[in-house]
Amino acid sequence: MPFIDLKAQYAALKPRIDARIQQVLDHGQYIMGPEVGELEQRLAAYTGSKHCVTVASGTEALLIALMALDFRAGDEVITTAFTFAATAEVIVLLGGKPVFVDIEPDTCNIDVRQVEAAITPRTKAIMPVSLYGQVADMAELNAIADRHGVAVIEDAAQSFGATYQGRKSCALSTIGCTSFFPSKPLGCYGDGGALFTDDDAIAQAAREIRVHGQSARYTHTRVGVGGRMDTLQCAIVLAKLERFDWEIERRLEIGERYQQLLAAVPGVRRLAVRDDRDCVWAQFTIFVDDRKAVQAGLQAAGIPTAVHYPKPLHHQPAYAHHGQPDDCPQSIRAAGQVLSLPMSADLSQADQQRVVQTLADVLAHQRAAA
User: Fold this and answer.
1) Class of domain 6-242 (CATH, top level)
2) pLDDT band of 99, cuts 50, 70, 90
3) Span 244-369: which CATH code?
4) Helix (H, G, I), strand (E, B) or coil at 258
5) How far is CA 115 from the centre of its chain?
6) Which of 30-34's residues contact partners 24+ apart within 8 Å by CB, and which partners?
């Protein structure tokens, strides 16, 4: 059983994907070809954003977002301690300081109640992460940001396609950033990402930054990076968009079935999904005790698992000096308990039931041996 079934997805989309790739090979515009602009128009329309700027990766989207906001050395960004390193990485790369706050214990998203107290005169932005495919409380974060004159950048690497209060992830704040890494809800066959905004000036800055700061060929108006998403990857995402609505429906359905099946399994704590939003389950993640033994039991039965993530960022050597070891206790707790189960739009009901039954058997065996 694959953890994410990309082969089944390709089999379903093979004629469309192959045709899109062949078009690029035929016209030969591998950088900034026509598929780039086509994808940007399609994604902007999908999210309801005014602008979409495709970039080389989700990480690059976050980096360019900060650069477009004129982020400077010494500036601060309030973000969650429980996320992938890229969230804090881009802040530090630009000479800034990540200010870590804790998570809600039941969603693993940033605890909005702790954000306002973390704001200082150096705060430039708030960067929530839509972890596992569920958007954080963006309305309250935007209200806090408005009171203090700072931007909100949604790290939506895991939530493309999700909705919050009837609106799409990536179109909920100053800037939304997503990833098209192959395992994401909408993935390419390499690295890719996109930045979304309604702000004309930010969009223009982002477009210039991604091509080494050029406003015209060899006219470098600002400092930039080599941050373009290549034409082939855009072509692949365009092909995948053809069944993306179906895939989101499947993710919601499979996630809900997991939630219902696992409700009857002792020893499993499920993530909460708030009433005003949904979750597209980039990872279907649960909480268990003695995770190592649970993983071993599932692996012995041929069921793959993963951990997103085993350490909060303030416990990572590269970022430990940005916090104290005892900070963010809910993040520390979650890092010791989270476990991600197989999840993709092509996961069969039989395989899903096998996952849940095997997990229940492993946990029952642990209880009996205790």
Assistant:
1) alpha beta
2) very high
3) 3.90.1150.10
4) helix
5) 20
6) 30/230, 30/231, 30/232, 31/228, 31/230, 31/231, 32/211, 32/228, 32/231, 33/231, 33/234, 34/231
- Residue 308: both structure tokens together: 């997103």
For the chain, where do the domains classified as CATH 3.90.1150.10 start and end? 244-369
Rg (CA), the chain: 21
- What is the bridge-based pairing of β-strands 193-197 and 51-55? antiparallel
Residue 171 has pLDDT above 90, yes or no: yes
Q: Running DSSP on this structure, what letter comes out for residue 364?
A: H
Is 169 within 8 Å of 163 (Cβ atoms)? yes
Question: Who's near 112: CB < 8 A, 6+ residues apart?
Answer: 136, 137, 140, 141, 144
Please tell me whether residue 50 adopts helix, strand or coil conformation.
coil
* In the predicted structure, residue 370 carries a pLDDT above the cut 90: no
Q: How far is CA 261 from CA 105, 270, 356, in A?
A: 21, 11, 7
Q: How far apart are CA 109 and CA 101, in angstroms?
A: 10
